[in-house]
């Protein structure tokens, strides 16, 4: 599933440090020459394509990125220190535009690739530099030039790792709310979700994945009923589907099994590729079933569906079982990625 993720950020390079005007002062040397040092260059701002960063979501909270100013020059020919550069981590695949003109500045495709987006100011010159045969005591010095300031628009095509499938009202948006900072609308009427929502599930500092909440799929979606069709076709890019089933369906004429079958049929009608994708059964709203009946209630659904794949029992509302589900997904995606890399290496015949 693909989404365009966007963010605007401001990048400010450091100004160059000023040059110094000063003269040597030492005992017994009455007319010491000029000894003002140059300033340091201002730091620049670079964007760096970084592994494991997979969305632009963090830029919503941190949108100004500054590099350091260069130090001013000092007496005794001391050169000012160069300002530190600022490196901003972005996900691979980020395209960078000048915000005001829409002009493309560049794109970052390879991990580790760097793009200069704001150049640091040039250092000012100390008065030593202005010394000449006709002017042995120059007062001149120059100021550092200003660092570049720019507004950038970042754009990224995000491919969701996990797609949620399920009847309207099954609790897909609630699940995304429970496990990520995404805030899709949740309500007790069908088709709350009119556009796909993305949630980034952060497992720890280094690991996260993207989960996509899509509008509920209903019977006939593969033929275009409801809102299902346009989203079904994008699901083929995900690595895992979660089939969310309400264990006590909202529609009284529906049972969990009949609701689940409808979804499976739609998926099979749509494409073999989608039907063969790894799919897990997520039985939601177990809090609507008395504690001591959950096990039995869920097992009956699994048996009737003749489902032999992974099953998770959760309550998105009460946040029960959701954490375990997220860990299992992360583990699965990592294994899947490792396997794909292995296959790629096999294909390309690389030894390692
Ligand atoms: N009791 C209970 N209610 C839940 C649970 N999860 C979701 N709900 C409720 O079910 C209703 C529908 O939830 P949503 O998350 O909007 O369902 P959805 O699958 O995203 O629905 P659509 O976007 O219409 O396809 C809301 O009233 C939720 O509060 C749960 O685990 N337990
Ligand atoms: Mg929804």
Automatic annotation (TrEMBL):
Residues engaged in binding Mg(2+): 173, 193
Native organism taxonomy: Bacteria, Pseudomonadati, Pseudomonadota, Gammaproteobacteria, Methylococcales
Functional summary from the UniProt entry: An essential GTPase which binds GTP, GDP and possibly (p)ppGpp with moderate affinity, with high nucleotide exchange rates and a fairly low GTP hydrolysis rate. Plays a role in control of the cell cycle, stress response, ribosome biogenesis and in those bacteria that undergo differentiation, in morphogenesis control.
Keyword Hydrolase in record: yes
Start and end residues of each OBG-type G domain: 160-334
NCBIfam families: Obg_CgtA, PRK12297.1, PRK12299.1, small_GTP
Signal peptide: none
Obg domain sequence ranges: 1-159
SUPFAM superfamilies, per the entry: Obg GTP-binding protein N-terminal domain, P-loop containing nucleoside triphosphate hydrolases
Aminoacyl-tRNA synthetase recorded as keyword: no
EC class name: hydrolase
Primary gene name: cgtA
CDD domains, per the entry: Obg (cd01898)
Oligomer and partners: Monomer.
Gene3D superfamilies hit by this protein: GTP1/OBG domain, P-loop containing nucleotide triphosphate hydrolases
Keywords: Cytoplasm, GTP-binding, Hydrolase, Magnesium, Metal-binding, Nucleotide-binding
Protein residues bound to GTP: 166-173, 191-195, 213-216, 284-287, 315-317
Cofactor(s) named in the record: Mg(2+)
Name of the featured protein: GTPase Obg
Superkingdom: Bacteria
EC number in record: 3.6.5.-
InterPro entries given in the database record: G_OBG, GTP-bd, GTP-bd_Obg/CgtA, GTP1-OBG_CS, GTP1_OBG_dom, GTP1_OBG_dom_sf, OBG_GTPase, P-loop_NTPase
UniProt family annotation: Belongs to the TRAFAC class OBG-HflX-like GTPase superfamily. OBG GTPase family.
Pfam families: GTP1_OBG, MMR_HSR1
Main location class: cytoplasm
């Amino acid at each position: 599933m693909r989404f365009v993720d966007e963010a605007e950020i401001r990048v400010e390079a450091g100004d160059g440090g000023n040059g110094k005007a000063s003269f040597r002062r030492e005992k017994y040397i009455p007319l010491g020459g000029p000894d003002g040092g140059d300033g340091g260059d201002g730091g620049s701002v670079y964007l760096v394509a970084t592994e494991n960063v997979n969305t632009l979501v963090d830029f919503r909270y941190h949108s100004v990125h500054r590099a350091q100013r260069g130090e001013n020059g000092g007496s005794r020919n001391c050169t000012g220190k160069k300002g530190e550069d600022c490196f901003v981590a972005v996900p691979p695949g980020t395209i960078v535009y000048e915000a005001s003109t829409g002009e493309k500045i560049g794109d970052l495709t390879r991990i580790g690739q760097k793009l200069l987006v704001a150049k640091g100011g040039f250092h000012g010159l100390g008065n030593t530099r202005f010394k000449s045969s006709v002017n042995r005591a120059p007062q001149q010095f120059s100021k550092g030039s200003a660092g570049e300031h720019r507004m950038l628009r970042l754009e990224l095509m995000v491919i969701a790792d996990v797609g949620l499938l399920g009847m309207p009202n099954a609790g897909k948006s609630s699940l995304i709310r429970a496990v990520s900072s995404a805030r899709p609308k949740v309500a007790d009427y069908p088709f709350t979700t009119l556009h796909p929502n993305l949630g980034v599930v952060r497992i720890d500092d280094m690991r996260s994945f993207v989960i996509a909440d899509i509008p509920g799929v209903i019977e006939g979606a593969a033929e275009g009923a409801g809102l299902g069709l346009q989203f079904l076709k994008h699901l083929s890019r995900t690595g895992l589907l979660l089939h969310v089933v309400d264990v006590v369906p909202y529609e009284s004429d529906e049972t969990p099994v009949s609701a689940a079958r409808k979804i499976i049929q739609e998926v099979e009608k749509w494409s073999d590729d989608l039907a063969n994708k790894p799919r897990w059964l997520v039985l939601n709203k177990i809090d609507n079933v008395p504690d001591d009946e959950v096990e039995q209630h869920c097992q009956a659904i699994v048996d009737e569906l003749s489902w032999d794949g992974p099953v998770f029992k959760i309550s998105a509302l009460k946040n029960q079982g959701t954490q375990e589900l997220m860990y299992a997904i992360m583990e699965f995606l990592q294994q899947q990625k490792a396997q794909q890399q292995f296959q790629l290496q096999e294909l390309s015949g690389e030894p390692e």
